[in-house]
């Protein structure tokens, strides 16, 4: 309580209160003054509460303060049953109620000022449901909620801007610098325009330059779109590869497993996911939110010095030592037989720890497996990018080696054939060259003979006619062959269709039977699933009811245990007080003077008498001092005047001695001159 009062007095003596209190003056405040002080502190947090409480009724004052404390989320110390006592103490101005409220308010004034400001806009007005049936009221309520959400977003942006450290001075400097740059650019543009106007066809050149700039911008946008499409294509290919891998895994699982094993795996996965969603992830989210809240609070606070850090570390060490002492006391005073649920608590805690450990191991294994799958996909994509294919399994690699060997043998044989064909090609090429030379010589002779006979060009015309007739005959042969090939292909296709129909007929019959079995199994699976869901819902309901009952019993047990310990402590203190009272009565009633002197009453009576005697002596001394004060002051003044008079006489005597010495020296000098 003393530390609390000291903190309150220190805060009240600072800005903006400046009360100039000390511990004695603050502790001696009347209830009405305490209520006015509390109202002033609340008025500093919310200006609407800067009210003189003498101008309003006590009920209105209590109601106003309770409303604001509720908005500020103040929780009075003690159990919930003491709320009525808290209200009564607030109305009467009790120190036991107002001192904790002042201590809580003064320690977090800035935070509470922000909360009170936000409460004016974010405390939602509760509209009855029957009024919301009206369309106008519903529209206004919806608009009110939308405005509230917009205010929340704007306030968050405002806080982020405040935290980011941007100031109006910096923004103004940036704006002024940008305006200067704008003026410089405008001047440069004007100079360039004047310089360009002297050039011929400058308008056409400007238009061409504008089109060039537009085309470059379009080229950049197209390049960016191309890059985005490439990245989208890459991501799509990766998703396709992942989907193919998952499809292969699912096909492998379906081929190697039974419906019972699949159902079991699905149940295990559902149980694990439900545990993550209902227990692990909410707990982690709560811890993350708590850490984020503390970090935001730490960021909002001013920078800490090394002295602050040292003080915090020492405080942490003290609190840790106190916690260890309390834990040791609890372990010493704890009796296992006092609680019927100690064994179940221990088992439940062990099971929950094991469950959390296994869930973390499973989560780590899944994350590791997903990371390995991502690495495999990256390696596959890199291999495909380098012109390779996917990584082969052991069986696929053996098949690949066997195919490679057969292809190697075929390659060697084909290479030998190519060498033979190349040699034959060289021979035929030489033969063709010789025949061409002979043909040219024969053509020259034939042209010379035709010129002699006067029928030049006859052989060329005859060759052209023969070539055309040969081409026509070849085309006719090709058409005939094409028709024959088409008729043969149609026959083959009809035969293949008939063969496929005959081969697929038993498969289709078997597929129909399998489809019917699949429908029956699906219906049975749905029925079993419904039974399982209903059974699980019932068990979950029973489990939740039992958990609530156990929780209530545990809370009741803890409450009873705390009540027992509180009553036990009160009993011990009362016994000590009763023993002291008995001893006091025994000493007071005793006939022996030595025993009576030991009594507290006698001791306090003796002390009171001594203090009264001392006070009487001091009052007499004060009376004597008052009576002799005037003559003593007069005598002191006379002595001071006498001292000044003697000082003046001493100075005059010293001056007279100095003048007599100077006259004697002058007389002696005159006598010496007369002698000379």
Question: How would you characterize the overall build of this protein?
Answer:
This protein has about 675 residues and is an all-alpha fold. Among the domains are: about 1-125, Intraflagellar transport protein 81, N-terminal domain (Actin-binding Protein, T-fimbrin, domain 1); about 485-590; about 590-620. The protein contains 17 helices and no strands. The chain has helices spanning about 1-15, 25, 30-45, 60-70, 85-90, 95-105, 110-120, 135-165, 170-195, 200-255, 260-300, 305-335, 340-385, 395-455, 460-590, 595-600, 600-675. Helix 1 (about 1-15) crosses helix 6 (about 95-105) and helix 3 runs parallel beside helix 6 (about 95-105). The longest helix is centred in the last third of the chain and has 132 residues, at about 460-590. It is elongated. It starts with a helix and ends with a helix. Mean pLDDT is about 80; it is low at about 335-340.
Key words describing this protein structure:
about 675 residues; 17 helices; single chain; about 85% helix; Actin-binding Protein, T-fimbrin, domain 1; mainly alpha
Helical fraction equals over 70%
Q: Quaternary state, please?
A: single chain
Mean pLDDT: 78
Q: Main β-sheet: number of strands, strand sense, barrel status?
A: none
CATH topology of the domain at 1-123: Actin-binding Protein, T-fimbrin, domain 1
Report the uncertain regions.
Answer: 335-339
At CATH level 2, the architecture of the domain at 1-123 is Orthogonal Bundle
Helical segment count: 17
Radius of gyration: 55 Å
Task: Please give the alpha-carbon distance between the first and last residues.
Answer: 102 Å
**Shape label:** elongated
Number-wise, the strands total: 0
